[in-house]
Design a protein that fits this description.
The complex is a heterodimer.
Chain A: H1 8-26, E1 32-34, H2 35-48, H3 52-60, E2 67-70, E3 79-88, E4 93-102, E5 108-114
Parallel strand pairs in A: 1-5
Antiparallel strand pairs in A: 2-3, 3-4, 4-5
Chain B: E1 5-7, E2 13-15, E3 17-25, E4 28-42, E5 49-59, H1 60-77, H2 83-93, H3 97-103, H4 110-117, H5 122-132, H6 135-144, H7 150-163
Antiparallel strand pairs in B: 1-2, 3-4, 4-5
Classes of the chains: A alpha+beta, B alpha+beta.
């Protein structure tokens, strides 16, 4: 996945992505999980009691500072895909959260939600 | 039974599907039923939809139901009572779910919720399992229960003694 450089315009792109997600959820659309994301969430639930509501809550509270990688600036894809570093649940478990927004539709598709395999940077932090 | 419908990305209704899943977690084999639906595959790197291939997806509500089923299966593997064990016990002794709840010290709807949604707490699940598998424990709890009358207590205790556990 591409890592967008820390520029004013790129922060704006991520801000719009986050804003669009919030808008769709506030209109009553539920998040959808891929098979991989569902299986990862099962592990998080058994180990740390993390639920689908915790994932949605994390999504609703994203800021550009959480940005890790993604959004292909060239466009043309069916989904805009972006990954974030977030903390979820009552124990504040750090996870890698990757999801896509349907470009010509309303689906919010969770591709990945798992404990990161390596330290994650946050290029838009500070 | 009527099959539940889910709307695909193209707003077309599709059947909710069900299958039995086996999962090994910390060396424990867990078996549970999961629900899902099919829609076109999306490449998570490119964000492109492949209209030649359909794969499994899970709505938030399906994930919630699957998680409950998985958690219940995990707790049962760790010694909690399974919903069908509780149902069999109640049927054998003709005890209402609300009565069993009260006898065990729970609120009125706990047993009924567990029977419908699965076990959610290991300590409660283990207490139920121990109680319904031990004549002395359940008889004692019936005897000391303040919320049922003496006639009912006698009737239940007699049934347990007659039929055994």
């Amino acid at each position: 996945m591409t890592e967008l450089p820390n520029t004013f315009d790129n922060i704006k792109i991520i801000q719009e992505f986050i804003y669009e997600t919030r808008k769709i959820i506030s209109e009553g659309v539920d998040i959808t999980f891929t098979r991989k994301a569902n299986s990862e969430l099962e592990e998080l639930m058994l180990d740390y009691d993390i639920t689908e509501d915790d994932i949605e809550y994390a999504i609703l509270n994203l800021t550009p500072e959480n940005y890790y990688k993604g959004i292909d600036p060239s466009g043309g894809a069916d989904f805009s895909v972006c990954a974030f570093r977030v903390f979820v649940g009552s124990d504040n478990i750090e996870i890698y959260l990757k999801y896509g927004l349907e470009v010509n539709g309303l689906q919010i598709l969770i591709f990945s939600n798992h404990i990161p395999d390596y330290p994650m940077s946050q290029p838009f932090k500070n | 039974m009527e099959v539940k419908k889910i709307l695909t990305r193209e707003n077309k209704p599709t059947d909710e599907l069900q299958r039995t899943v086996e999962k090994i977690f910390k060396g424990i084999k867990l078996t549970y039923k999961e629900v899902y639906y099919l829609d076109y595959d999306v490449d998570e790197d490119t964000g492109m939809v492949n209209r030649q291939k359909k794969v499994e997806y899970y709505t938030k509500s399906q994930v919630s139901r699957n998680m409950k089923a998985l958690k219940s299966s995990y707790l049962i593997a760790k010694g909690a009572a399974a919903p069908n064990e509780i149902i069999s016990f109640r049927k054998k002794y003709h005890i209402a779910a609300s009565t069993l709840s009260i006898i065990l010290g729970f609120s009125k709807n706990t047993i009924s919720n567990i029977e419908n949604d699965g076990v959610t707490s290991l300590p409660s699940g283990r207490l139920i399992k121990m109680s319904i598998n031990n004549k002395d424990i359940i008889s004692y709890y019936i005897r000391v229960c303040d919320s049922i009358d003496n006639r009912k207590k006698d009737e239940l205790s007699k049934k347990i003694m007659e039929l055994g556990i």
